[in-house]
């Protein structure tokens, strides 16, 4: 959920919760850093762990000083006391740090230096707590209680995301530990961050930030958001900067051959890259064109259906497709769940689905709803298409990185390749390889026919294999497929890494029935890292029957490219 502003409803919670929700996808990226993956797998080199823990003293010192300043700023006695208690907790932890680390089973190094990433965060925090906030208007002598409250809120907005981030990460790590094995040497430290007391401390800071923010203006709330986000980014940079000396499984662009990463990325388009279905967009183009003809009261050799009739036709086609699609999915599911991964059985079942998809496209063509669409209108709709958050950024970075020998291919059932190409041309993306159906034109207007190239999972797989065959002479490379529909199934399974985003109900049902495992990507990485340390990991290979699930393109970015 993306927060568009601070107009709260009764269920929204305070500003701290809303900001965490807004930036949570970015925090997920920390899970894919080599440090966190190695830590969660229990294979992290102890020197790397101790180096990270040694930075705590600098963070705690900065927290203590920031709390001291915030306490001075707070106007309410109750707020002052709450901040004073927080500062005392920090000072106590600072005093007991060595003993606490010994309880975890480690000994801190006698000498440590403050890392650059640590300095960037602590300098930012202390500057914020001192009232040196970029973009603040009218900075000067603090006079009124409201001005003091504002600075106290700013200081807490630079601390709150750090506490919440570590609480979140520790719980995610705890969830992938194997209870019966209990071999992770860092489990005590993880348990400490998962504890009720740590969660309570994080919540107290957030509650106080909420309280102090109540009287802030809209501009001041914008500053709180910027500070919160900046603190989050600096903390993520700190985690990503932790030195790792061992071999790691992620990010895949940095663990390939020294000459660079050879990567072929395949993506579905509808609801994987786009936030709306392309058929709905083409329906809008057709209905608007028909309405324009109705309004002008003129005849067209192409648009011969009224806007009202065309809208009804589209609605009927859509309803019929959904109804029959569900029937086909139910029909091709085996009567009993297969106990093992059954690729051959899945392929046979998908043949029936392919026949249905072909018939559905024939119905669309025969209805005439694709006749008379302007090529200019189709491209304009593509240029204004809304993408899934983060998608274009991932594709742009992969295509633009000099040390990556990467190809990006879009494999789509979309009826119009022009729509896809124009969608990607609206950004800073280089020209991508688009494999889809096409709408033929007479002049610059569609004829109503369709050049069918991509109608079934088998069509997608054929294109997938043809592309890989054309790259055989480029040496060893990794294939990643990103999709979420039944049409993507075979490509997802054949890719070295099949990543499912926005999983359709049909994909999940068929996968469960034919023995496909859906594993959260982070959990899969932890398992792979553990296997790598044990010497039993042979890298990423397709046809394992395992597909990896993510909730956002930010996770895909972190997995492939890193933070």
UniProtKB/TrEMBL annotation:
CDD domains named in the record: TenA_C_AtTH2-like
Gene Ontology biological-process entries: thiamine metabolic process
UniProt cross-references to SUPFAM superfamilies, sorted A to Z: HAD-like, Heme oxygenase-like
Gene3D superfamilies (alphabetical): HAD superfamily/HAD-like (3.40.50.1000), Heme oxygenase-like (1.20.910.10)
InterPro entries (alphabetical): HAD-like_sf (IPR036412), HAD_sf (IPR023214), Haem_Oase-like_multi-hlx (IPR016084), Thiaminase-2/PQQC (IPR004305), Thiamine_Salvage_TenA (IPR050967)
Thiaminase-2/PQQC domain: residues covered: 34-130
Protein name: Thiaminase-2/PQQC domain-containing protein
Gene Ontology cellular-component annotations: cytosol
